[in-house]
Amino acid sequence: FAPPNSGRCLPPPQTPCEYIDEKLGWWGYGRFSEKESWVGHGYWWKPLPSDAKEGFLENAAGNAAADCDVMEDRFHKLKKASVITADYDLLRADFPELYALSDADINKWLVSNAAYLSAGQVRRISKGGDHYEKLGITDVDDYIDKSDLCSAIRMRSGGRAATFFTNGGRYRFVNGRLVAGMLDVKGIGTHELADVSHPKVTGLLNYADALRGLMIQKLIQGLIDLEGLDHEVSTVKFYGIIDTGLAYQGENPATGWKNEKCVLAVRQRQSRMLDGYEGFNFSGVCPSQVLAQGPGRQLRRLLIKYGISAEFFPRALLYAPSESDGVTLARGATGGLIDDFEGTWNLQADSTGRYFMDFTDFYVLPRSPLPKCWRMTEEGLRNAMTLERTPFVKLVMSSPELRRRIFGEESKEAADKAYRAHLEKLSKDDTLLEACHKVDEKTGLIVPNKPKYCMCWCMELDDSEMTKWAMATSKSDKRVPSIVESIRANLPRVALPDPADPPPAPGYERLPVHLQPPTEANVEARHPAYHAGWTPGKKQAPKHDMKCVTLDPKKMGSEGYRFFISCVVPRPIALVSSISASGSANLAPYSYFGAMNHNPPTVCFSPCRNRGGNERDGYDKDTLRNIKETKQFVVHIMSNWYVDVANHTCGNYLYGEDEFKLSGATPIPSIKVKPPRVKEAAIQMECQLEALHEIKDETGLVKATMVIGRVVLFHVHDAVLDKETTTVMLEKLQPISRMGGNTYGQSFGCFDLPRPDRSLK
Hints:
nine-stranded antiparallel β-sheet, alpha+beta
């Protein structure tokens, strides 16, 4: 599948793998005796038949009969592509080769690896194609580099996304498993054999939809992280948005909006769920049986709790209390709203059913407990309910409370009259007339139905501040330098308690019983018999098979890093401040960190070597460089309340840049050492350098340097110190630890276990 002389190629599917057996889903659904063998998910790779003609791939709706993932070549490089926004922290975490690169260099890497358009789309934007005039193109060669070609795996269901291999398509096999950098890119155009007869199948992605998808993905992932559900359910995260250089000159037939920029949404790799063996599987949408259990159920419970919907009709309106559109459900709740699928959730998942994506059809209800900027207005909801399908209007009319809320009338007769009057008013709005599906020729009224371009009117008429911001940003010619940061700044900071959780004690965040202050009521729960019935000498074994896999670190290559940090968990984090001989302050976190002794108090952390530079084995991190010059540093323990500030200091900033200013950390003077302290940190340890120990590989190259320091002065927030015992109270310190990958941990669910020669006090 490599284009001639391109040097770029993609491998065949790995085995064993996520891929679906061809005979279980090809050439029609429900026609095979192997129905009981149906896998129900995964990549579905298949070479296209040699006699396939244009229109063969039905990517617009996507069903088990006429849709598959295909290997595709001749993707063309976009000459005018540029990065609009990117999540540089996420990119550095997922792609080790980017760790030492600047943001500008990462932008170049993104364009190099993701800015392509399919051969089918190039034909459509060329002279004679259906998009040539729509995009105002005079010479396609101004936009397309026909000499720079590559291959990708086109994703089914939607027809405009493909998975690209990074770094020229290079890949390798480790222990029989395919290892490669992969980027999912949406907006790359249609396949040459796709059915593009419907005008909405443009193959392109407009900027507003991409920005809205990014915005809602960040919101939902933020809620998942707040609730501590990331081990159960997650999202396919956005790496960034790339401007293709193309823009509609007039109306975009897919959205009805005018003069829209065409962009690429770059995301984490994923495979699409293919669940329907006997029927249509529209755009990878999860059927109710997937959403009724496991990750799907947890995600729906979370969305319901915060008043977020991706339904044609938000069923929470029928259940929610009058003061809120959020309905808090216990984790084990059954019946009622959690088992109500009548609203038809548009939730799309990958093959595992755990990672969800495509959030452009989500909206936040007016009385959601989320910050106001995310919520549509009551007027927006009223307009949406007035224009919706007749069955949905009947639902509103069936509830006295909803009649009063939406139409201001409690009696059905008065509500019907108010509904009619409001429909007449809305039918005079040119914007709504353009967006509606149909207008009654006799009455001139908008016919109740879904809108022309969206799945429901709640999404079409979402008038939240964040949606307005996204629309305004997408229409502006000015580049917003900090789109990702702007979204993060508006994310909620505190999780709402669940019914099953204990109520928070005054002055404390929501904590498990083992972290609550001791009382007569919870003392037994704080000191459980951790394994009841165990006696000395009795073996303790896990439930899983104890057969081991032996790994040689010398043969693991770059995989060794991720494996090692996933083994040694949790790791405490040292937020280290240092200062150069010229007086430039530096602040950075290190999880290769620990306490070495208590008398004298001694700590140790280990900065790894920066890769690249002029030296053969890299160069020192700024922290180590400063400590070598001044022999002093301050170690801070990272706590929950300033984790975002602390995490921001780990960026790849230039030497001499002040991470205190960049992150928002507050510097305060130290007493015995020169580096400043972080005011927000509850524990601050002024340290004098004791020793440096270089860690070398078998060739003698320095890979890291162990920094050993003696604590010469402690500073502790008064609020976290138990003065009677001179110990720090864990429930108030709220320490953060580092886990594997990009995951952080919190000290919840702790227990006390005495030494064999001491009683528990």
